[in-house]
């Protein structure tokens, strides 16, 4: 299968099994397993995430997601390795001197109910969301599939490349919760070049749009109020 056809199939697999932030256990397993098959070194769970830097993680949702992942065939050994934290990082060294280049791909979905209209393409083609109330409506299924395609391409072209590569498959991008714990773990401390992307609607097949500024940014805080119930404002 060529790399383009494989990317389509992989993206559709992710689309059918959307998982919200910090619950991406099925996705993480598929990513980790594929990377290992492609000859990458793989890190998961607390080897990827600094737990003290995590925000907006619901332990109850996490436990439900782990049980759901197990029911879908994710091995217990893998779930145990995660220590309840999603996210995967693949590393590849060409063995030749050169820069360390990192690419980031997000994995989580959004809390949107996918259409069940018979004319909706995922319904017609059989890859609509199987999980009620969750949908890859923001393109992260495509992002993750592209990351795995890049992993395959690097492996196939390793003799023409130099330096090393880091592929970051980030959980919990929605709500800007997943990047900080990965950075806090030190994964980008010694990176020479860092690329992150997002699917857009203006590029055709074979085209890439490059942005050098004007990105959105935000900060999140977890705040707990203790005392007599009142309006937080």
**Biggest sheet layout:** 5 strands, mixed
Strand residue content: 5-15%
Strand order of the largest sheet: 1-2-4-3-5
Order of helices and strands: HHEHHEEHHEHE
Tell me roughly what share of residues is in helical segments.
25-40%
Question: How would you explain this protein's 3D organization?
Answer:
It is a single chain. Helix 1 (3-16) runs antiparallel to helix 6 (140-156). The chain is globular and about 65 Å long. The mean pLDDT is 92. 34% of the residues are buried. Strands 1-2-4-3-5 form a 5-stranded mixed β-sheet, with helices on one face. By secondary structure, the chain is α/β, with parallel strands linked by helices. The protein has a single domain, classed as Zn peptidases (Aminopeptidase, 3-Layer(aba) Sandwich). It is built from 7 helices and 5 strands, in the order H-H-E-H-H-E-E-H-H-E-H-E.
Structure in a nutshell:
By secondary structure, this protein is α/β, with parallel strands linked by helices.
């Amino acid at each position: 299968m060529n790399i383009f056809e494989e990317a389509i199939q992989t993206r559709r697999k992710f689309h059918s099994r959307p998982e919200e932030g910090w619950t991406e256990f099925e996705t993480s397993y598929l990513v980790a397993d594929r990377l290992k098959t492609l000859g990458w070194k793989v890190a998961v769970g607390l080897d990827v995430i600094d737990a003290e830097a995590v925000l907006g993680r619901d332990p109850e949702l996490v436990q439900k997601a782990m049980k759901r992942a197990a029911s879908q065939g994710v091995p217990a050994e893998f779930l145990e390795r995660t220590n309840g934290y999603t996210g995967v990082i693949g590393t590849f060294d060409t063995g030749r001197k050169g820069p360390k280049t990192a690419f980031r791909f997000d994995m989580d979905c959004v809390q949107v109910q996918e259409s069940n209209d018979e004319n909706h393409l995922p319904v017609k083609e059989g890859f609509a969301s199987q999980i009620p109330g969750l949908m890859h409506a923001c393109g992260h299924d495509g992002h993750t599939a592209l990351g795995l395609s890049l992993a395959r391409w690097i492996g196939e072209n390793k003799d023409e490349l130099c330096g090393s590569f880091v592929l970051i498959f980030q959980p919990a991008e929605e709500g800007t919760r997943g990047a900080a714990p990965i950075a806090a773990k030190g994964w980008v401390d010694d990176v020479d070049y860092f690329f992150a992307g997002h699917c857009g609607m203006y590029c055709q097949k074979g085209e890439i749009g490059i942005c050098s500024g004007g990105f959105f940014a935000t900060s999140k805080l977890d705040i707990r109020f203790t005392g007599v119930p009142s309006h937080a404002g």
